């Protein structure tokens, strides 16, 4: 009886990844994001762009939007357009959606991220401030979904 020697074959490990997602997960998809110029939504937009999406970001501060769009475009090699507007005004959403569809041809994903908040106890929050939060968070979300629904 002869003994056979076995040699272990070890496959090379793939390079480490910083993402659990396929690099082209959102390849050529279009994201429309309110509140995309700052905070959590900016990170969401940049991440989707890193995974292949192009984006339109909407917010009230045009200067901040333009800077964020340029920064994310440079960092990802994808396109991000700033579309200034206020989610409380439906006409602003219609115009932003039209600009997005004109540029990219469609909208694949929508993130309703615009939010109003005041870090204050209720005793320090005026009724106008509370109304603003409700209008941005609730009416703004409705307006965003309504304006993007057909696209």
TrEMBL record:
One of its GO terms (molecular function) is 2,4-dienoyl-CoA reductase (NADPH) activity. Pfam families: adh_short. It catalyses: a (2E,4E)-dienoyl-CoA + NADPH + H(+) = a 4,5-saturated-(3E)-enoyl-CoA + NADP(+); a (2E,4Z)-dienoyl-CoA + NADPH + H(+) = a 4,5-saturated-(3E)-enoyl-CoA + NADP(+). GO terms for biological process: fatty acid catabolic process. Keywords: NADP, Oxidoreductase. The keyword NADP applies. GO terms for cellular component: peroxisome. It is an enzyme of class 1 (oxidoreductase). Its EC number is 1.3.1.124. This is 2,4-dienoyl-CoA reductase [(3E)-enoyl-CoA-producing]. It comes from Serendipita indica (strain DSM 11827).
């Amino acid at each position: 009886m002869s003994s056979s020697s076995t040699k272990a074959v070890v496959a090379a490990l793939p390079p480490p990844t910083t993402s659990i997602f396929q690099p082209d997960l959102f390849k050529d998809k279009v994201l429309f994001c309110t509140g995309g110029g700052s905070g959590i939504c900016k990170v969401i937009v940049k991440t989707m762009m890193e995974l292949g999406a192009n984006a339109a970001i909407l917010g009230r501060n045009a200067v901040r939007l333009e800077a964020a769009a340029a920064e994310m475009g440079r960092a990802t090699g994808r396109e991000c357009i700033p579309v200034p507007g206020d989610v409380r005004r439906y006409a602003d959403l219609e115009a932003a959606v039209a600009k997005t569809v004109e540029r990219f041809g469609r909208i694949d994903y929508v993130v309703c991220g615009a939010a109003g908040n005041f870090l204050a106890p209720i005793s320090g929050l005026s009724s106008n401030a509370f109304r603003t939060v409700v209008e941005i968070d609730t009416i703004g979300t409705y307006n965003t979904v309504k304006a993007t629904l057909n696209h």
